[in-house]
Each structure stands twice: as structure tokens, then as C-alpha cells.
Amino acid sequence: MSTVKGFPEHFLWGGAIAANQAEGAFDADGKGLSTADMVPYFEKKDYVNLKELMHVTSESIEKAMAHKSAAGYPKRYGIDFYHRYKEDIALFAELGFKVFRLSINWPRIFPNGDDAQPNEAGLQFYDNVFDELRKYNIEPLVTLSHYEMPMALVLKYGGWANRKVVDFYVKYAETVMNRYKDKVKYWLTFNEINTTLIEPFTGGGIVEDRYDNFLEASYQALHHQFVASSMATKLGREINPEFRIGCMLARMIHYPATSSPDDVHQALVDNQFNLLHTDVQVRGEYPPFLARYFEENGIHLIKEPGDDQLLRENTVDFISFSYYTSLVSTVTPEKYGVTGGNLYSTVKNPHLERNEWGWQLDPVGLRTVLKEMYDRYRIPLFIVENGLGARDTVEADGSINDDYRIDYLRQHLTQVKEAILDGVDVMGYTMWGAIDIISASTSEMSKRYGVIYVDQDDQGNGTLNRYRKKSFAWYQKVIRTNGEDML
């Protein structure tokens, strides 16, 4: 009989941000431009097709490169974590964080990506951040690449479609892993690696108008990232055998719209495409169904000798993933209405509520995902992004009563606990985001996720003062009781 009662004793509770959405200081202390610095803010948005807001062309890149300030490009100014990290980490410590997920901004370390020597000012910044976390006994969980590729590697080499970028990434990974080998234990090689197929510029620095076969270029970029991830994993274990190195997936579970065998099969196919990334990084090989897909779509993947062995021999220690919503698959989408999402849109699920941005709220889906992935891979799982984007209101007395966020988190954490009782090995949970940051998909500030409010609007105006929301005290209590009190 199982003796599991709930969240394990050493469960890693915390929160998460990304450098490109939080740090700001886009040109400070020798930092180079990143791919995120190319994405402007649009006042009018189509929330059913958010990919259009992140779509980058050669023309838009030229315009962004000529724009020397942060104005109009929110990810260039973020929430000024670069200068306020001590204040923010003190708040995370007050919450009781055991772990804090953040990313290293690659062009802070190698401004052009192919530099001979790293930028010491950038290295020192993260030394300072990790030292501050250590002061409060908070473990850093570091993502090496989180939509922050040096823009120079896109302009000079064509992004991840070029094999040379593998070597630049590995040099970067080796540099920071050596530098922080005694300060960081948990590493993720790429954020939501499947984004390289969903939105190839964001994930892989692939500019659509520069390729005749855009789909082939995207898969080639993805292969290079798999190779780079395996090389970094191998190096990391040599640098410090105590490192725990994981992959990271945007988990998008698909339900069939009906019990029609065709819809059921379509959902299976869609789930196969989502999980092909973890298949490679955990099982060490490409799934068989891709061979037919490549042939039918004119995709000729170029591998170097030894690539398959490298993937096979350097699989990850754990799987981390984001989970926000579930999707619906059908062979007849014209029969159904469409709703929005993060980097995708989907058929509406009549059984689920949706938020303003079209995300279908599905806490039970998180339990399903956990059980399905653990059955498939049997290695530890880590939920490193889960949260609710919403418009928060500051009341006259200064309070922010975000009961809707508490309800969302409570429902999802209840399902995590159920999955643990089902026997799933869950390492931890880092809510997205610990603090309000710039939205990845819409570049808005008004789409808020944090339990800490940041006084800044969509145009970058505000004091940047930090305030505790009602959800702050709630999440603090959850962590303090190790998930036993979620009321």
C-alpha cells in the first residue's frame, strides 16, 4: 500500500521568470541585442492569432535594429529586474521559495554570440543574482536559452538552421556552467523547445522570408538544438557530476473533439508531434512516425556522423514543462468555433471556461499530463510554468484582490497533488510568473501573472514599485504548509 500522503518533503516550491521579459537594461554593461529585442508592442491585437504579434520579417528586423531606444519594444525594458533583483529576491524569500527559475540572457555573456571572450560584466551580474539567492537558501533553476538568442547569430549565420550555432551555444553553456558550477545545481538547456516549430523566429532565430522551405529550416534548427542540448548535458556532467539537467516542453495536450475514430486519431497525431521533443531528449531517438512526415513534406534533415549516438548517450535527468491550457483536435475544424492561446489557436472545448485571451482553463488536464508523461518516460517531472494571465485592479486602499488567480492556482495544485497520490514523481512547481513581467506572446504588461504587482503599464509608464497581491499571502501559506493548506 502507498504511504504517499501529498507533496513530498523536499518538494521544490517557487516561481519563474525569463530574462527577456524581466531584466530590461537591454543595452547595459556590454549586452548585445537578442531576438526578443526585435518584438514591438502592438496596441491592437487579435487574441485568436497571437502568433502574428510575434511574427518577425527581414523588414521588421531592419526597423528594430535601427530603433536604438527601448520605447515601443517592451522586452527591452522589462520590469528592471537587472537593477532591482535584490528587492525582488527578498520578496521571493518572504514567500518561502525553495527554488527560483530564471534564465541567463545569452547576449549578456556573448554579445554577438561568436565572441572570442565572454563579457565579464554579464557574468558578474549573474554571480550577484546567485549569491543573493544563496543568502536566502533559494536554489536557482537556470534556463540556458529562453528566447534570448544573440541577434548577431541570426543576422550573420541565419539562426539555429546553421550548424555553426551549435558550437557557439556549447561554448556559452560551458562558460556559464564552469563559472557557476558551485552556485547552480539545476539546469534546463532550452525553454519550450517545441516553440522552434510553432514560432521558429522566437524559438530558433529562423526568419521565414529568408528560406524557400521554411518548414525544413525549422526542423533543421530543431535538430541542431537537440544536438546542442546533448552536448551541453554531456559537458555539464563532466563539469559537475552533481548537476541535474533537464529538458523543457510547452505541453499542449490534445483531446479529440468527438469519439469519431478520425478525431481520436487526429488527437493522437497532434500529441505525438508535441511529445516528439521529449522522445528525442529522454528516449534518445526520433520517433518513427517522423520518417513518413519528412518524406511527404519534402524535409531532408542533415545529420552529421555521430549525431544519433550523441542523442542516445546524453539524455536528460528530468522533464520540465509548462502547462496553461488544453487543446482540441478534429478533422473538421470548420464545424467548431476557434479560441486563442499562447502561440496557437484551437477549437473551442464546450466543457471549459476561457479567459480573456482565449485560454481554456483545464486543471484536470494537468493531472492527465502528469500521469501520461510519467507513464511514458518514468523519470521525474517538474512543472516550471503554470499560471493565470489576468487584468488586475489596484483598489483605492492599494489592495489587489486577485481571488481568480488564487482559484486557478488552487485548482491546478489540487490536481498536482492528485497526480502525486497516483504515483507520479513530481520534483517541484514554479508558478509563472512569480512577479508581473512583460507577456511573451503579446508584449503587454496588463496581462499579469504574478503574485507580486509591478506598477507599469503597457507603454512602460509607472513607478515600477512592487506590491503584494492577495495571492501573495495565499501562495506563502501553501508553501509554508507544503501544500497541505490551500484554502
UniProtKB/TrEMBL annotation:
GO MF term list: 6-phospho-beta-glucosidase activity
EC number(s) stated in the UniProt entry for this protein: 3.2.1.86
Source organism, top-level taxon: Bacteria
InterPro entries in UniProt: GH, GH_1_N_CS, Glyco_hydro_1, Glyco_hydro_1_AS
Active site per the UniProt annotation: E385 (nucleophile)
Enzyme class: hydrolase
Keywords: Glycosidase, Hydrolase
Family: Belongs to the glycosyl hydrolase 1 family.
Name this protein carries in UniProt: 6-phospho-beta-glucosidase
